[in-house]
Amino acid sequence: MSDTPLRLYNSLTRQLEEFQPLHPGEARVYTCGPTVYNYPHIGNMRAYVFADVLGRVLEWKGYTLTHVINITDVGHLTDDADAGEDKLEKMAAQRRQSIWDVARHYTDAFKADVRALNIREPSQWTVATDYVPQMIAFAQGIAEKHCYLIDSGLYFDVSTVADYGRLARASTDEGESRIDPVAGKRNPADFAIWRRTPAGETRQMEWDSPWGRGAPGWHLECSVMSGAVLGFPFDIHTGGIDHREIHHPNEIAQNQAHCCTDGLDVAENSGARFWMHNNFLVDRTGKMSKSSGEFLRLQLLIDRGYHPLAYRLMCLQAHYRSELEFSWEGLHAALTRLKRMIMAVEAVTLRHAELVSASNLPESVQRDGKRWTLNQIQGDGAGGLQGQLHTFDGAVSDDLNTAIALTSLEDVLGAKRVEPERKLSLVAAMDRVLGLDLLNLTRADLRIRPKAAQITEAEIKAALERRREARAAKDFATSDAIRDELAAQGVEVMDGDPLGWEWKLG
User: What is the distance between the alpha carbons of residues 105 and 144, in angstroms, rounded to a whole number?
Assistant: First the structure.
């Protein structure tokens, strides 16, 4: 393990704490996954970029990672509490499709976004409907002491566990204000463990239970799946900050009921040692909401000509606990920064190839597959780059400070009088943490054709070649005319651009 301890912010205690695994040498992490009733928007995806970086840092620090992400395909209601329709049932009715087909379609779409953002697959995906028997058994185990039955289903009595709402610090304010009243509930914050199907109705997803035919509550699912795969207690539970007010406090209450009813002064009583939350992505245009029609999903960014890893870099430029404001200008700046890094890597790679060719030495830089850790790169020797390595490790060890880590990586790329192989090895190791795929991407990969563009790339290149010939002949009238023709078709000619874009489609 590295000399610099890994310190993470624990939402439960509201302080930075040194990470000490509950199982020696292993880190067990659970991430609240999507409810697959619609496409994820880019704010949703920030949570998975954050969780991915967390997992990469844990491996960098030498831990074996077991990471679980769930897929919610039943039980999540439209208002995040206990009123309204099931999100999947509602979308299935709108699309006039089987709920299973809807869930499959949006699960595939989510996983496509995961791949596009270079988010690594978890050790295991857990799907809620695969765990319904375990959910019923879990509920039976806590029902006698912690639950009560009313007409609409089985409810958890939050007064039966200590310190309910400590995670949110809002058990009587924002948290409860988001919960619509339900007839028969003892306390406003009580929540459904099992929701009965109303008389005369039939759901596409429903099961028999001791409390009537129905479906599990949303909060129950995560308690059951995390405990079933990782065991209680496990190390880290992650999710978006919106989960901190209702969903995660309810998970914690269930975990306490299942394991013990002791208070949360001992974090492990919550089911996890750390609870970590990324902050919101803020969109001033108002297009983040899925109810707005053309909301900001990753495919929209791609359709406008932006490589998805530019969005990943945009996320990394801010601390995960800070709000991040989205703008097209900010995304374009991230794309430009990404290109600068890729150009620098290409230059070092070319120099390395020249040296290898001249000396007949074998290629030795690992581009894929190597599980880089800090100890490995120290063992390989960072040479004159020890200062950058120390700064990088200090940054990621300080609650995942990726903004400073990015600067350290750029310092490595800009370092002088360093062997190309040594530089590339350190960049590869750092990029295993940041996940920007710098040794495999090319400048050409970043030039994505906007969906609305009519002109072909071959036509653009031909026009630019004619323009270069005109400029060489000092025929500036023709040169200007070609530039204006391209501009009319959405192509911006970027004369004198030091990054060598030459052109871009607007």
Answer: 39
The phi and psi torsions of 191 (rounded to 5 degrees) equal: -140, 160
pLDDT in the model for residue 226: 98
Mean pLDDT, rounded, for 109-121: 98
CA pair distance 317, 44, nearest whole angstrom: 17
Q: Tokens representing 144?
A: 């006698």
Report strand pairing: 64-71 vs 124-127: parallel
Residue recorded with tokens 């108002």: 286
Per DSSP (E only), the strands in 262-396 are 272-278, 281-283, 324-326
The pLDDT of residue 326 is 96
Measure the CA angle with vertex 280, ends 275 and 281; round to 5°.
140
Average model confidence (pLDDT) for the chain? Answer: 90
> How does DSSP classify residue 241?
G
Q: What is the pLDDT of residue 160?
A: 97
Query: In sequence order, which ranges of 238-327 are alpha helices (DSSP H)?
Result: 247-259, 298-303, 308-316
One-letter-per-residue 3-state SS of 127-172: EHHHHHHHHHHHHHHHHHHHEEEECCEEEECHHHCCCCCCCCCCCC
User: End-to-end alpha-carbon separation of the chain, Å?
Assistant: 48
Top pLDDT among 486 and 184 is at: 184
C-alpha angle 78-79-81 in degrees, rounded to nearest 5: 115
Alpha carbon 436 to chain centroid distance?
A: 14
Torsion sign, CA atoms 352, 356, 361, 366 = positive
Encoding tokens for residue 151? 């007409």
Model pLDDT, residue 481: 80
464 or 257, which is more confident: 257
Helices (H), 291-327: 298-303, 308-316
CA distance 458 to 452: 16
pLDDT per residue over 6-54, tens digit each?
999 999 999 999 999 999 999 999 999 999 999 999 999 999 999 999 9
Residue 270 has pLDDT above 70, yes or no: yes
pLDDT reported for residue 207: 96
| Phi, psi of 276, rounded to the nearest 5 degrees | -125, 140
Cβ neighbours of residue 192 closer than 8 Å, sequence gap 6 or more: 82, 152, 153, 154, 155, 156, 182, 217
Q: What are phi and psi of 424, to 5 degrees?
A: -65, -35
Q: What is the spatial distance between Cα 280 and Cα 242, in angstroms, rounded to a whole number?
A: 8
Cα separation, 113 vs 109, in Å, equals 6
- Rounded Cα distance, 472 and 270, in Å: 71
pLDDT tens per residue across span 360-398: 655 556 555 455 688 888 755 566 899 999 999 999 999
The pLDDT of residue 328 is 93
Phi, psi of 352 (to 5 degrees): -65, -45
